[in-house]
Amino acid sequence: FIHNINILKDTAMLFDNISSIGWASFASFFLWFSFIFTEKKEILKTKIIYPLIFIPPLLFIYTQWAGFLTVDYIKKPWGWEIVWSESIWLYSYYLYYLLFMAIGLYLILNFGKKTKEPIKKKQARIIFIATLIPFILGTLTDMILPELLTYNMPLLGDVITLIWALGIVYAVAKYKLMVITPALAADNIISTMADSLILLDSQGNIASVNKAVLDLSGYGKDELKGKSIEIFFREKDFKSTLLDRAIKKEAVRNYELNFKTKTGDHIPVIFSSSTMMDEAGGMAGIVCIIKDIT
């Protein structure tokens, strides 16, 4: 509405005040989003973080409505030009905006470099670029150029922010940003479950293990991949018996066995397994669950 030359000055001021709910809080919500996206759970658990993030925008929304940020509106060919105050409130807002956006961008960039998950790496790249472009352009058009140029130009920050919105929409549509898919849920359950889980291929060799297996056995993940299940269980004909039952789609329930660790120790466990089927109805692999009963 600020770009509409047909509205009255008081109306332009009213709509600018209402829109301040968005532009004054954008940096805070972006920083909050960055903490969530980059999985900074320990930071989000601290009680002080929420006042630090959300009190500043409330303060600047109040100062906008009180007339401490914008002091006048001048009619121009493109709409209403905002006349900013030269008070400490304006420069405090600039500092808050630049600081929060810079921290959020750094968190996302750093997360994208360190994460081992390809999808999250791509999501981080999209979000970083989609945020950096409007951040730079918006800062130039709404903060720097108005101070340097002798002629007036319209504020384009609200329009440029559409680049960020389109980037988020693309990340959601393309890579399921912040969407819990069955595969993602399964991966998280497997990685955090207390019991040991081993996925075997159709030959009875280890395809994948969760962290609990590594903790119980003392092996590294690379040491186990492709190895026979008999690295853990030395019972006679264990592998062939397990495969035979899997082919017949027979589950194994609560067998007491001895689990052999890397150091040669034997740990009593409860062993269960079931067959994974492919789309054609054939055996794709075997899921093994091991429960330490010591």
From TrEMBL:
Keywords carried by this UniProt record: Membrane, Transmembrane, Transmembrane helix
UniProt domain PAC: residue ranges: 253-294
InterPro entries given in the database record: HisKA_7TM, PAS, PAS-assoc_C, PAS-like_dom_sf
Domain PAS: residue ranges: 189-237
Residue ranges of the TM segments: 20-37, 49-68, 88-112, 124-145, 151-173
SUPFAM superfamilies assigned to the protein according to its UniProt record, in alphabetical order: PYP-like sensor domain (PAS domain)
Classification via Pfam families: HisKA_7TM (PF16927), PAS_9 (PF13426)
Keyword Transmembrane: yes
Identification of the protein by name: PAS domain-containing protein
Species lineage: unclassified sequences, metagenomes, ecological metagenomes
